[in-house]
Write a structure and sequence with these properties.
The chain is built from 19 helices and no strands. It is an all-alpha fold and 423 residues long. It has a single domain, classed as Up-down Bundle (Growth Hormone, Chain: A), CATH 1.20.1250.20. Helix 1 runs antiparallel to helix 5, helix 1 runs antiparallel to helix 9 and helix 4 runs antiparallel to helix 9. The longest helix is centred in the middle third of the chain and has 30 residues.
Length: 423
Amino acid sequence: MAAPSRPVDPVRVARWGLFVLTLVNLFNYLDRWVLAALVESLKHSELHLSDSQLGFLPTGFVLVYMLTSPIFGTLGDRGNRPRLMAIGVGIWSIATALGGFATNFFNLFAARSTVGIGEAAYGTVSPALLADYFPLEKRGRVFAIFYAAIPIGSAAGFMLGGWVDHVYGWRAAFFFAGVPGLVLAWMTSRLFDPPRGSMDGAGAPVTAHGHGPIGKEALSAYLGLLRNVPYALTVLGYAAYTFALGALGYWMPAFLERERGMVRTDATFQFGAIVVVTGFVGTFLGGWLGDRLLPRFRESYLWVSGIATLAVVPFAWVAFTARERPVFMTCIVIAEVLVFVSTGPVNSAIVNLVAPDNRATAVALSILAIHLLGDVPSPPLIGILSDASSLGRAMLVLPVAFGVSGLIWMFAAWRGGRTAERT
């Protein structure tokens, strides 16, 4: 039976779409971060992986994810978005489960890399679809809800992965994480696909193409985004943020176990619990602040992101250097809240800085850039530095990256405000 061609109740359809997309996003990050809970087990398993090899496992995923994102961005601005996302969800779910059959590093690397194909199809299209469900003045809160799935899913990956690994072994953790996604793929395929720009009004910017870029038009669209200075600065700051966040999420359970003497299950469960709570608080706080300040500051989303991310630096530094558990755990909590404050606002900024029929393309290019410069190099770099010295010393790179991100976003907000004053 075909999906309905038009919604009966736009509000109900939008809310259902937000629910389904958020649920899928939760499993998106569960599948992505379950690997982090298994690092120590994989290191001491029959696969005998080094820290350098373990660091390259997420890099394989991210490389495929970022390289295929522009393809899906072009398709997402032209074709049926729910159908495209459903295919992606199915691919990444099967690939996650296949990780449980790995017999060596290369098998596992291939399985984890394939996850990137599926997530690229979903990650590029879902923000654009949400922007067509809700008007501009609600997008900060809507994206806060959608991206609240990041801490929940990430924590579920840590906690589910750690628990299943402890009870059934690391192979079973991949099976538990991957199989439910097949049901989600079907749910995604049933979503309504509204007209592009339907919630932006008559004054919304438009691009030269009418049905999404393809061929030479696709290249022109991507080059146009590079010339969009506010967009480029926002993405550059996002890349530095992703550099730090990618390595932080991947190596933190191992850091707590090796450098702070925590039991493996305690490390994964406690960090997972921290991510859930701080993710909820930080993400909703950031979305609320961005929307609340928008009538006063056109660049409110970037100001909120920049100030919060710059404030992460001292707390992250103390978290990686202090030895007393109350001190470093308290600093981890504060740093994580501040990290998640920027999640909703920066993604709202990205979709608001481009034309409605160019949003999937813009998200795709941002995915390519933030991962190429961000969490492609950061997990293996931390692994290499850890092999050369210690994991504790290697992690000190991350507060510096957060500082760079915050400064870039604050400069982009200041520049945008000055430009608005002149016009």
